[in-house]
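Module 6 notes. Inverse folding takes a fixed backbone as the condition and produces residue identities as the prediction. Think of it as a translation problem where the source language is geometry and the target language is the twenty amino acids. Below is one complete input and output pair. Work through it position by position during the lab.
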């Protein structure tokens, strides 16, 4: 599951959405990537959430664009005249996170787009409850339709527990029923939630979770959380996520209750 590392060679344009202002760049493998910047407003914790949630979603068989580590030279900022864009670019020298660009994709529309099948909708709903994703609502679905399938993007707001995390309470909120699932854009079609729970529990084993956590670069784990070192920090993320998987009956029940109210 090792992530590839690519070097950004050309800055193409910004995506002027939200405060993260991701950049579209061309890399030395000739690919185009939507790059989330560690120098943007949310800092490196957003990249940690993006890598962990995106990596686990891929491990569970959900469609997420390929994740890569992107080495960025601050000189790329010279081609952006807007200081609100060039400043985070300059501050993001070093390793950032990129998602493979999906040309021709369109944003999922819960009214106009084709309906997802029950298995896919249920797995996405329950996975988002697992990683406490507040950004998959009708107003902001963070789903792209590409080749007639829904692709999950923008996981920087997941795992929000880690913004106030301390080693003294490493499993804080890991048993949260996650009431926000009631706002999920795919909840109306999530009619196979128990089956989704069995699938996710089987796919997201402790070994899988630890392998994904091991991909977190040291540079992203330097913010003060009180952990002894990056290895301890990675282990804490793996422990929290493993506990969250074990607590699946709690948020499965909440998701089923929310679905019954929606329909």
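Target side of the pair, the amino acids:
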């Amino acid at each position: 599951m090792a992530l590839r590392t690519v070097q950004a060679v050309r800055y193409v344009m910004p995506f002027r959405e939200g405060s993260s202002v991701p950049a579209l760049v061309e890399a030395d493998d000739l690919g185009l990537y939507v790059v989330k910047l560690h120098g943007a407003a949310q800092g490196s914790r957003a990249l940690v959430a993006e890598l962990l949630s995106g990596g686990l979603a891929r491990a569970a068989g959900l469609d997420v664009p390929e994740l890569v580590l992107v080495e960025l030279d601050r000189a790329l900022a010279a081609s952006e005249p807007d200081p609100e864009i060039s400043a985070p670019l300059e501050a993001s020298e070093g390793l950032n996170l990129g998602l493979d660009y999906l040309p021709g994709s369109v944003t999922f529309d819960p009214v106009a787009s084709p309906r997802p099948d029950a298995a896919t909708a249920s797995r996405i709903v329950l996975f988002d409850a697992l990683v406490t994703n507040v950004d998959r609502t009708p107003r902001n679905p963070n789903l792209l339709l590409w080749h007639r399938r829904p692709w999950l993007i923008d996981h920087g707001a997941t795992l929000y527990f880690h913004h106030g995390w301390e080693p003294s309470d490493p499993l804080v909120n890991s048993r949260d029923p996650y009431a926000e699932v009631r706002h999920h854009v795919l909840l109306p079609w999530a009619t196979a939630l128990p089956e989704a729970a069995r699938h996710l529990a089987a796919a997201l084993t402790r070994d899988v979770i630890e392998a994904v956590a091991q991909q977190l670069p040291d540079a992203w784990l330097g913010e003060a959380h009180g952990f002894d070192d990056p290895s301890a920090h990675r282990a804490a993320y793996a422990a929290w996520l493993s506990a969250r998987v074990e607590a699946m009956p709690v948020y499965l029940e909440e998701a089923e209750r929310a679905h019954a109210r929606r329909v």
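Reference fact for the lab report: The first helix runs from residue 44 to 59.
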